[in-house]
Specification:
alpha/beta, Rossmann fold, 6-stranded antiparallel beta sheet, binds 6-O-phosphono-alpha-D-glucopyranose
Length: about 575
């Protein structure tokens, strides 16, 4: 799962220009990066582009391809970094996706004498092209052959040394072509070049393209040229860190404003879409599909919808195969990026079973938005920190709005939570010493318990478990020892929550309550709300601040945690 970016232009551009575009895709992975150009330059580095961009030797070229990597096949090494090449270093390839039958293809190529330098699945592509060109095919025919016999997902850019041509091909992984004044940009998503052009063409599956400095052609897998028109898109303003230390805290602090923007938009420009989805979900079963934080927003959303009498369930997208959707199901994909491969695969399956597809996304023009009959945009603006915060809050609020509930006071409630962030900072200085943290919730609170535990894990690297409070006594309570922190989410002195919390306290746990009525534990954070649904959304913000300050106290790389990526575009 990676980002790819290429440019081909009539006048030379610098490697810095190429890398500036690639840097905008860094949220897709930051294990290593690299680029190749028509002048023969091939540069690779371990680590993120941001750390190197000012140190790279500047060179000029008219064609270049580049790649930022999140390792799947093969460790984080220079050899495994893209671009990859064939035996004679004639073809250079960058790839996002996974070639599922690469071992079979590799064995075949090895038996024909090809020598591989990496452990990646990607390296089969340049060798495959080399082999078939050697046997007399044109590069274009070799590409068609690859599309035919390869299995798996790919967005690929291929260039030939000293030539001003980029070949591109796509299946499942996103790929978009941008029109520039003096040439073309091509990338995993429009964000890579949204500062340069807003005229784009999205590729469909099994298409390939041949792009030169003046022109381009897009073809289906049989080589038939396809006529596609450029579309224009609008993009929100770009974010920068300003005076904040991390994007994460900036994005948490932006939540009240983002919620105000969302409510305005749902009441006005998105009103029709909301009405249409609301009518659909009244007569169909709702099945949310999502991953990670978006799944937790969906889980919270199922409680909101059920409370409004709507039959709703949520499934982790990679487990979708265990669910049965049909024409009476409204599948709602919830995704910040709109590009998560597990969600896309689930939607393809849902579409095949005639379910109605809707979505709630943050990134406009994303694949998931384009796959949906109806899509709500949560208008949170660009979210840069890998761990999702303001988007989680927006997703939960959008689902609550769909349920018909009033959310006008949410903005004020979030404001009041954020104003007390120093209280959370203080307690996090204590929490950061823990080896394990348990987070307990019930009903809506269970979704929050899972989300708060995830936030703590992903950015502080402390082991945290989010649990149904009532289930604790059936096993996990064996792990409670004196001094173990338990974060308990208690609304209106819920008796079941209090019993479960007491059971841990009896074994020496230190209780950190997120509540609306003070609980006599080691520490309380009181959210001033009698509205149960808004309370739980605000509890998410409290959890985000706990995770942030805990990770900060530990000196973690908060915005780019190890091993993670913001958009996971592989299965
Ligand atoms: C990755 C990110 C998570 C995110 C999840 C789903 O795992 O690290 O923060 O929640 O993907 O992403 P999506 O873009 O579909 O919301």
């Amino acid at each position: 799962m990676c980002g790819i970016f290429g440019m081909i232009r009539q006048s030379p551009f610098s490697s810095n220009e190429l890398l500036q575009g690639l840097k905008r895709l860094e949220y897709r992975g930051y294990d290593s990066f690299g680029f190749a150009s028509n002048t023969g330059e091939l540069t690779k580095h371990i680590g993120s582009i941001s750390d190197f961009i000012d140190k790279i030797n500047q060179s000029e070229a008219t064609t270049g391809i580049s790649h930022t990597r999140w390792a799947t096949h093969g460790g984080v090494t220079l050899q495994n970094s893209h671009p990859h090449s064939d035996c004679n270093e004639r073809f250079f390839v960058v790839h996002n996706g996974i070639i599922e039958n690469y071992e079979e293809l590799k064995n075949e190529l090895l038996s024909r004498g090809h020598v591989f330098k990496s452990q990646t699945d990607t390296e089969v592509i340049p060798h495959f092209i080399e082999e078939h060109v050697k046997s007399g095919l044109s590069i274009e025919d070799a590409i068609k052959m690859f599309i035919k016999i390869s299995k798996g997902t790919f967005a690929v850019l291929l260039m030939e040394k000293n030539k001003n041509i980029i070949y591109a091909m796509k299946r499942d992984s996103p790929l978009v072509l941008g029109l520039m004044k003096d040439g073309f940009a091509i990338a995993s998503d429009i964000y890579a070049f949204s500062n340069i052009t807003n005229r784009v063409i999205f590729f469909d599956d099994n298409e390939y393209a041949i792009i030169n400095q003046n022109d381009f052609g897009i073809y289906d897998s049989y080589g038939k040229q396809i006529k596609k028109d450029f579309m224009t898109f609008s993009w929100n303003k770009e974010e920068n860190l300003g005076n904040y230390e991390h994007y994460m805290i900036k994005e948490i602090i932006e939540e009240p404003v983002a919620i105000e923007r969302l409510i305005n938009s749902l009441n006005n420009e998105q009103h029709d879409t909301v009405e249409k989805i609301s009518s659909l979900i009244k007569i169909r079963k709702v099945l949310f599909v999502a991953c990670g934080t978006a799944y937790h927003a969906s889980l919270l959303g199922t409680s909101f919808l059920r409370f409004a009498g709507i039959n709703a369930d949520a499934v982790i997208a990679s487990e979708y195969q265990n669910y049965m959707a049909d024409k009476n199901t409204c599948v709602i994909a919830v995704s910040q990026s709109g590009e998560t491969m597990d969600v896309i695969k689930a939607l393809q399956a849902a579409r095949a079973s005639s379910a109605v597809i809707c979505s709630i996304v943050n990134v406009p023009h994303s694949t998931i938005e384009r796959m949906s009959s109806l899509s709500i945009n949560i208008k949170a603006g660009q979210e840069i920190c890998v761990a999702s915060t303001k988007v989680f809050t927006g997703q939960a609020a959008a689902i609550l709005y769909l349920s018909g509930a009033k959310i006008v006071t949410l903005q004020k409630l979030l404001d009041s939570v954020i104003k007390q962030k120093d209280v959370i900072k203080k307690i996090s200085e204590d929490l950061c010493k823990a080896r394990d943290i348990y987070v307990l919730g019930k009903s809506e609170g269970y979704a929050l318990a899972r989300e708060i535990a995830l936030k703590i894990k992903e950015i502080s690297y402390i082991h945290a478990e989010g649990m149904m409070a009532g289930e604790l006594k059936h096993g996990t309570i064996a792990l409670i020892e004196p001094g173990v922190p338990v974060i308990s989410i208690i609304f209106n002195n819920n008796e079941d929550m209090i019993s479960s919390t007491k059971e841990t306290e009896a074994r020496g746990a230190d209780i950190f309550a997120i509540t609306n009525k003070p609980y006599p534990g080691k520490w309380n954070f009181v959210i001033d709300s009698e509205d149960k649904k808004l309370f739980f959304i605000a509890a998410g913000t409290v959890g985000q601040l706990i995770a942030y300050y805990t990770a900060k106290a530990l000196g973690r790389p908060i915005d780019k945690p190890r091993n993670l990526a913001k958009s996971v575009t592989v299965k």
